[in-house]
Amino acid sequence: MPGYAEIASHFRRQIADGELAPGNKMLSYADTAKKFGVNRTTVIRAYDILKSEGLIVSVPGKGTIVAERPNVVISGVDRIDRLNRTGRRYAPGEDSTGHRVMRRSVMDADVCQALNVEPGDEVVIRIRTFRQNGRPTSIGVSVYPPRTTAEVPELAEEGRMERYFGDIYTERTGRQVVEGQRTGHARQASQDEIDALQLDVPAQMAVAVLVTSVTFHDDSGPLAYWEDVYAPGERVPMS
């Protein structure tokens, strides 16, 4: 039988995937206990975890429902997993704007090290802002070295990528794409990030943001560097 943490994880994923949308009614304690073959106490503990995370709320006369603004902002890697599970790129109320594609000489030391390129080498950078119900929640940045764009030239074209680049790369090369360890750190937001996230702060005021990053590889070396920049106050599930 699953434990309360596993039951909480089940519903947490359904909320993140959009299978349970804001305002949807959760199963009753009794129905959930029957579904998972557990006792009522186990279900109550699972629901209490989700309530403490701001994912569900108890409403008099309605029971337990998914919060109108579930405090979950997922990363690009999690979006790949969601797309593979559900076939949906966005959860209910989620979209992305400000899509930009550019070729630039990379100078950031962390990106150069991650992609095994020299400072000044040209890369393709893709940027977009993710929103929930019209509110900016995070910025997605992906950087691709020449060896990747040579196999997936669509990455250098304007517009949204309709598929995960790794699937296209594997189809064309036969080489498996593997994601590395996702890491996080805090830093000061740039003015471009402040503008994209629509943060109302005084000019020249320092704003701290959480940043997570991950590098993708095949057996020949790095293929992509992804970074997600989250608006202050957002909660990010960490795997």
What does this structure look like?
Strands 3, 4, 5, 6, 7, 8 and 9 form a seven-stranded antiparallel beta sheet that branches. The chain has two domains: 4-66, Arc Repressor Mutant, subunit A, CATH 1.10.10; 76-230, Chorismate lyase-like (Chorismate lyase, 3-Layer(aba) Sandwich). The relative contact order is 0.14. By secondary structure, it is of the alpha+beta class. Helix 1 (4-17) packs across helix 3 (40-52). It has helices at 4-17, 29-36, 40-52, 76-86, 109-115, 146-151, 165-173, 191-196; strands at 56-59, 63-66, 94-105, 122-132, 135-144, 178-179, 183-188, 208-218, 221-230. The chain is built from eight helices and nine strands. A hairpin with a 2-residue loop joins strand 4 (122-132) and strand 5 (135-144). It is 31% helix and 29% strand.
CATH class descriptor of the largest domain:
Alpha Beta
Q: Give start-end ranges of low-pLDDT stretches.
A: none
Gross geometry:
globular
Strand count, sense and barrel status of the largest sheet are: 7 strands, antiparallel
Mean pLDDT: 91
The protein's oligomeric status is single chain
Rg measurement, Å: 20 Å
- The name of the CATH topology of the largest domain is Chorismate lyase
Instruction: Identify the CATH homologous superfamily of the largest domain.
Output: Chorismate lyase-like
Our count of domains comes out at 2
CATH architecture assignment of the largest domain: 3-Layer(aba) Sandwich
Number of beta-strand segments: 9
N-to-C SSE string, H for helix and E for strand: HHHEEHEHEEHHEEHEE
SS summary, helix count: 8
Distance between the termini: 23 Å
Strand percentage: 25-35%
Percent helix, as a range, is: 25-40%
Q: In terms of structural class, how would the helical and strand content be classed?
A: alpha+beta
